[in-house]
Amino acid sequence: MEEELKCPVCGSLFREPIILPCSHNVCLPCARTIAVQTPESEQHLPPLLHPRGPAPPAAAAAPGAGAGPGTAAGSAACLDSECAAGGGGDHADKLSLHSETDSGYGSYTPSLKSPNGVRVLPLVPAPPGAAAAPRGAGPASSSLTCPQCHRSASLDQRGLRGFQRNRLLEAIVQRYQQGRAAAAAAAKCQLCDRSPPEPAAVLCEQCEVLYCAACQLRCHPARGPFAKHRLAPPPAHPGAPGGGGDGGGGKGAGGGRKLPTCAEHDLENYSMYCVSCRSPVCYQCLEEGKHSKHDVKALGAMWKQHKAQLSQALNGVSDKAKEAKEFLVQLKNLLQQIQENGLDYEACLVAQCDALVDALTRQKAKLLTKVTKEREHKLKVVWDQINHCTLKLRQSTGLMEYCLEVIKENDPSGFLQISDALIKRVQVSQEQWVKGALEPKVSAEFDLTLDSEPLLQSIHQLDFIQMKCRVPPVPLLQLEKCCTRNNSVTLAWRMPPLSHNPVEGYILELDDGDGGQFREVYVGKETLCTIDGLHFNSTYNARVKAFNSSGVGPYSKTVILQTSDVAWFTFDPSSAHRDIVLSNDNQTATCNSYDDRVVLGTAAFSKGVHYWELHVDRYDNHPDPAFGIARINVVKDMMLGKDDKAWAMYVDNNRSWFMHCNSHTNRTEGGVSKGATVGVLLDLNKHNLTFYINGQQQGPPAFENIEGVFMPALSLNRNVQVTLHTGLEVPQCVKQTKLPNN
């Protein structure tokens, strides 16, 4: 709002503002400086202000005449006095030089610039030696040109007093000054080291920082790059009096302020509004003045009407201002985007070249790290072997010296007391030096050969290409992030660092683990993918390619991944019956119910040979736990094997039975108790299932022709607690027992 309160001539806040006929405002002192005095001779007018045609003879000035009211020096003094009044037949013709109906704005010759950038018309001094027109030469007329719209207005006999004072604007300026003074007193310097900070003296509009006088001299001197910064008084805040709120001095009409009186009749207050002249008038103006025949309305009614019109107009301006703010934000964002994109584009070539060098440097560091690791590994192995061999040598040497001392003794009975133990110790010491113990575990040679030929060829082939959309290049597999766990594999890849072609997604392909055809296992935008449910002890080949709107790019190199030889798994809490209680990291299971409840393992098998064991931690009251395999949709609220989704062996303290579809077969002697171990052997290569108790096979293979996907399974009640052991190879005793049945 501050710009609305500044005079267009002096650039400062309005002082005694007057309203020009064009509705613009100007300070009364500034109006005196820009008003133009026009004597009848017009000898001192600027060239553009002279009337068309040759100057009249009367324009010559009497030599030796003193400066009078018609001169430039005396014009300001007589503008608002009676000496400005005049008449004569040439008055209307002179006014035409300053009216809107003349040749445009030729009457206004901008020559100086006010502080806020508006050019004003200065006073024109008399030529040297020219005398002022004598008083009898004829009356002089004055005009005032608006510094904003350049429209001219003639002054009547009252001079500048004929213009109305803008009392409303004057009151607003007064409130604003009070509020700014209060805010200046409350504002604190933002750079002060003192506590509390000193009051702020100025605000730099460019830096947006408040300075006290000392900090301004120290941190913001008026020289160098700061010379062009604009320093303003500390701004008013909305809560300060007169700073946009209802502070002091903001009383409405009649709230204690003296009512304005008529300019024509000093003793009369304004009571009516002349619609024709668009100005407030008093009762006496209507009776005897020029407004007697004009359309006149009540002042209060017109006040409310114009307020309503202004409010309605402000709504439209407010909407446009809101749109303008949004548009400015959009433009500023556009500026920022253009700036950022321009900088990115300018840095593109340098960045690409730097990326090549950086990539080579990083690769060099990686290769050096590999060499360092290999060297440290070899040194560690050799030092470990030295320390181990030294220790064994010291022990063997000590034993030898001790045995020699024993042999020297002549006490047969004492010798025989310790000879057996010494002989065994010597034999054990000899067995420590097995074959290969005295051979280096590593060689001094480094089996590392750097293949730099492809890179050199790529550097020689490096050249500019046409920047157009092409299919994506070959993705690079990140082997350091590719891994396997149990029967799942994780693959990671990335695009080459200097690739400019857009990528919309990737296609990951995997074979069947037996050298078969590749198949798509993933399509998407991610560069990391885990595939579960693969076969154990199997070798898989994987490859990936990228695609975009132009097509599908070439395949990456093929990576070979080996799944685990044996399965590591636990009980699955997510699929277990709600009565099952798991502990020991889901490796130990029991139950809250006296009825049998089922829990499955977290692994699923469809291929290979798998073996796991269950240790009976607690066995009370001769329950019948069941061990076996099941499909994912097995019924979990009854004994394992009673439905067609499970194959199991249930056992008591004396005997065991095989059960599937609630059919009991192959009763075998031999039960379980606390501390017993039950082994389950699932051979999906031969499609059979075999059970063991404490290493002894329970009958022939329990079930034949088993095919599909199976999960380890167990059913038990609250009288039993078992612990699962996985990641086991088939024990030798189990292999020997199993052979006659194959």
UniProtKB/TrEMBL annotation:
GO molecular function: zinc ion binding
InterPro entries: B30.2/SPRY (IPR001870), B30.2/SPRY_sf (IPR043136), Bbox_C (IPR003649), ConA-like_dom_sf (IPR013320), COS_domain (IPR017903), E3_ligase_FN3/SPRY (IPR050617), FN3_dom (IPR003961), FN3_sf (IPR036116)
CDD domains found in the cross-reference section: Bbox1_TRIM67_C-I, Bbox2_TRIM67_C-I, FN3, RING-HC_TRIM67, SPRY_PRY_TRIM67_9
Start and end residues of each Fibronectin type-III domain: 472-566
Region (Disordered): 41-67, 230-255
Residues covered by the COS domain: 407-465
Gene3D superfamilies hit by this protein: 1.20.5.170, 2.60.120.920, 4.10.830.40, Classic Zinc Finger, Immunoglobulins, Zinc/RING finger domain, C3HC4 (zinc finger)
Domain B30.2/SPRY: 548-731
A Gene Ontology term for the protein's cellular component: cytoplasm
Comp. bias intervals (Gly residues): 240-255
Pfam families named in the record: ANCHR-like_BBOX (PF22586), fn3 (PF00041), SPRY (PF00622), zf-B_box (PF00643)
Main location: cytoplasm
Residues in B box-type domain copies: 187-234, 257-299
Keywords annotated in UniProt: Coiled coil, Cytoplasm, Cytoskeleton, Metal-binding, Repeat, Zinc, Zinc-finger
Cellular localisation: Cytoplasm, Cytoskeleton
Highest taxon, organism lineage: Eukaryota
Alphabetical list of PANTHER family matching this protein: E3 UBIQUITIN-PROTEIN LIGASE TRIM36-RELATED, TRIPARTITE MOTIF-CONTAINING PROTEIN 67
Protein name (Swiss-Prot/TrEMBL): Tripartite motif-containing protein 67 isoform X3
Organism: Pipra filicauda (Wire-tailed manakin)
